[in-house]
Write a structure and sequence with these properties.
43% helix; 5 helices
Amino acid sequence: GTILQEDLELLARIIHAEARGESLEGQVAVGAVVLNRVKDPNFPMTIREVIYQPGQFTAVADGQIKLAPNKTAFLAARLALEGQDPSKGAIFYYNPKLATDKWIKTRNVIKTIGNHKFCV
């Protein structure tokens, strides 16, 4: 299908804000988590609503979502929108060095890429 420019831009923004400094694979995986949530009945049905769902992404809360994404983030967003999912279907991820939320650490980790653990 056609990739909407707005979706590409938003996904690139959340990837850049949440995962810049990670490998391309790690950045695609973060994008895939957003798209996996769109498909999951327990989450909102659009990329915008998933990203802006209150309390979900640190980068939205602290304003980093406003940073301009770089080329890698745009590439990662495009690859995720084309169906790549290095996370293997994850709907959550966290950085164990930074995570303060006890609940996230109870989730089943299915993949680790760089500093992020991807879980369901």
